[in-house]
Amino acid sequence: MILNALSEYYDELAAAGEVPQPGWSREKISYGIALKKDGSVAGIISRKHLNEKGKEIVGTEIVPAHPKKTSGISACFLSDSAAYLLGIDPKEYPENIRVKKQKRARECFEASADLHKSLLKDISESSTAAKSVLNFYEKWNPEDAYHDPEISRLFSEFAKTGFLIFTDEMGKPISEYPEIRELWNNHQQDSKDAVSMLCLDTGKKDIPATIHPSIKGIHQAQSSGATLVSFNASAFESYGADGKQGLNAPVSESTVFKYTTVLNKMIADRKNIVYVGDTAYIFWAEKANHGAESIFLRNFSDQEDITDDELRSIYMHLVRDGYCTVHGEKVSYDNKFYVLGIEPNAARLSIHFFWQGKFGNIVRNVQEHDERLEIIQPFHGRALLPLWKIAQETCRISEDENGRKKVIGKPSQPLEDALTRSVITGTRYPMELLTGVLDRIRTNHIMGYSGWEKAAIIKALLLNNFSGKEEVATVSLNRETDNAAYVLGRLFAVLESLQEQSARPAKLNATIRDRYFGSAASTPGIVFPQLLRLAQNHERKLDQGGKVYYDKMITELMGKLNGRSYPMRLSLPDQGAFYLGYYHQRQALFEKEDHADSPEQDKTE
Predict the structure, then answer these.
(1) Structural domain spans, the chain
(2) What is the pTM assigned to this prediction?
(3) Residue 282: pLDDT above 70?
């Protein structure tokens, strides 16, 4: 299913000319070896370019496909490392040449020379490009390279990411000459094994791939690449297929080329991949609909080419009208969409997640997720909360002497994975998210005017994971509900405000939130009698208007408890309701309408 979906996506990209044809691959090329017609080296030319930030980077070019590199010696046609094309080990400098390294580099160069001579000999008389490469291998002496000033200067560069490529004097790659392309394509067909097996992907008899090429560029995987399908020990092999590697799970060479090529393209372009912790989520749309892919990328990353308001408009049109337009491209609700979760595991890649369905279903799930997070924010903001930020709210926070907050550590990897999957599939959030957020609130006491992110997360959790919490999981203050936990949260906010008013103009070193917040939410039956006794002392410091103002609010909230005793212990969902009540009430205390009969207003009257 996965390989088939990737193969179909390859066909769509190939039709648009966005991926190389079979027998060719896109590789990082850092330098070109410019050859004269007689085979002598005209110079070493950089193939790097500047990105949009002005930084020099190694680009990719389409070259004859590279065989999968192993610990043995395996040469590539017309593009390879410095060891194969120049016969030098780029990690060894002239004054420190180790015999063992020099010997291997010489063997690599000889293997490359044998490959090029065997392929180019038949067209050397008719092709000047082929003749220049053959002349190079006849003339070039690897030992002289260690003492060549220009090559020595680039030793450290050759050791970095990127291959070298043969070009003519003008910089045109030898592989782009028509006769060279035709030669390579014919060679690919002639070199195929005649043995056919039933392909596990297509269900048809075809030539199976013995070794699957590497997938490159996944974070935390080996820099040389890792594979989705590989067998390198008898413990992984089927009976009767010992030592036959990929033949244990026969997949046609055509399918293998397609799925590895399209995966490497999506990873390299960074437009079809987002990382959540160590997991790479690779996504694509049927018919190569890049507009749908842009929407998904905006939902699960911090890119800014689509604003929050534009994203809300996209949601509305897709769900209401069945389509929308993004960057001039029409996106349909029914467009099939795929999400593949991959995690590195040494030299292999593990598939952790795969989803396929209508793109509109993902949009609807994300829209409902964002609606659950909707909550009143300071200054009436409406910022969306990205997934990485949600997971980050479970991390420890430190504060420097200037009041700047800093996140300590990283979110749990299983939490990030489970959260991402729950949003994509529209299922319940992981309970670890609730326990993590509540723990941070108890530890850091961040829940007041600046804690809207944690309040939004709690609200979403109560709506999605627990039934019957709709009356407390509201966008703003619900003055009507008599839910005990929510009312107690409101009461705590009022008592804190009373303490702050009683201390004015002085600033308190510690409020009741600093001392009692966590215990009031978990064991209100123990804490609230003491808080109300403290409140009486605070009221004595207010003038008559202030006393009436706070008496009125406290009496109203106490009345909503209907004479019930304070709960001795609150469950996790009820603790969430407590914190929501507190947050909503704190926000309401900052609203102008809530100060219509405030203590300050009474004084002026």
Answers:
(1) 21-190, 196-269, 275-414, 484-604
(2) 0.76
(3) yes
